[in-house]
Amino acid sequence: MAGRFAPRTPTGPVPAPGPSTRGDGTGTGATRAKTRTWTPPGDAFELGLVLGPLRRGPADPTFRTAPDGSAVRATRTPAGPGTLRVRAAGDGTVHAEAWGPGADWLLERLPEMLGASDDPAAFVPRHRLLAAARRRRPGLRLCRTGLVLESLIPSILEQKVTTIEANRSWRHLVRKYGEPAPGPYGDPPDGRRDSRMYVMPDARAWTMIPSWEWHKAGVDAKRSDTVVRAARVARRLEEAVGMEPEPAAVRLQLIPGIGPWTAAEVLQRSNGAPDAVTVGDLHLPGIVGYALAGRPDTDDAGMLELLEPYAGQRHRAVRLILLSGRTPPRRAPRMPVGRIAHL
């Protein structure tokens, strides 16, 4: 579920970029950055809430947060790899720096990524918990990356396993088959490989990963086959960002192994879909049922019934529920973390 929890405070520093100047964004090092300043609409904007769903665990090699509140994202755009650093200033503006061939693409779409096309005013809370959550976190906006594959592949890896396992698989595969992020974050001053940021592999590279490397990454054949099938038609899947959410979900689910759960997880991020509900999740129905009706045993049908008053804004309603912190008490041990690579 995109944005399942509030953003964590960084546990350690990230390498700080050197002084940047305007440039073509294609060189190495920090002196080739392109910059942009943008002012978000409205009075409230919380960068961590907007970009938090793009992070796949605290050690995600494609996403970092810094103690000053800035977020750094390494991604593969239609123009090529790019690194984007975003910082919210005290005067209400957002300052961005970008490196690499994808720098122009990232800066051009900066407002949309940060929720410029989102309409928080369209949400009308009908439960005091939702009203209180929105009052406490008014800076929530739904991001729209405009990129499908970067959200689809980690979502496939999350199918039927714990988040810890999926994040570990994502780290392993991106570090092994991706490429260092353009700019200073791909070549940190300390030289440590684990502090380097990476851009995920391109579509062809995903199809070339041998079966034993998927096994080493802890990914079973069903999920790896789904990733390969999706990567082979990546161009067609990327077209979903220009479609309405329902036909976009249909497009994604044409790939065997991609169902409603995965499609919703992707569209929440790539399209900023405010009504994309994650059905088929192990925990989410119980969380929603407990928060809105005191029923921790709620199933998918019951969750959708409770969310019916928020039709058109159900994803936002779920985000606010998760941010409220009201979750049912744990009644069973955590799902065990497996290691396929040890078999």
Characterization of this structure:
This protein is 36% helix and 10% strand. The chain has helices at residues 47-51, 103-108, 110-113, 128-136, 149-157, 163-177, 203-207, 211-216, 221-232, 234-238, 245-252, 260-270, 284-293, 300-307, 314-324; strands at 34-38, 63-65, 71-77, 80-88, 94-99, 179-180, 198-199. A five-stranded antiparallel β-sheet has the order 1-5-4-3-2. Strands 6-7 form a two-stranded antiparallel ribbon.
User: Quick check: average pLDDT?
Assistant: 90
Number of helices, where a helix is a run of at least 4 consecutive DSSP H or I residues? 15
Distance between the termini: 29 Å
Strands ordered across the widest β-sheet: 1-5-4-3-2
Task: Label the overall shape.
Answer: globular
Record field, number of beta strands: 7
Strand content: 5-15%
Secondary-structure element pattern, one letter each: EHEEEEHHHHHEEHHHHHHHHH
Low-confidence segments: 8-30
SS-derived structural category: alpha+beta
How large is the radius of gyration?
Answer: 20 Å
The largest pleated sheet is described as:
5 strands, antiparallel
Q: What is the percent of helical residues?
A: 25-40%
Per-chain topology:
Blueprint lengths: L33 E5 L8 H5 L11 E3 L5 E7 L2 E9 L5 E6 L3 H6 L1 H4 L14 H9 L12 H9 L5 H15 L1 E2 L17 E2 L3 H5 L3 H6 L4 H12 L1 H5 L6 H8 L7 H11 L13 H10 L6 H8 L6 H11 L19
Antiparallel strand pairs: 1-5, 2-3, 3-4, 4-5, 6-7
Helix pairs in contact: 4-15, 5-9, 5-12, 11-12, 13-14
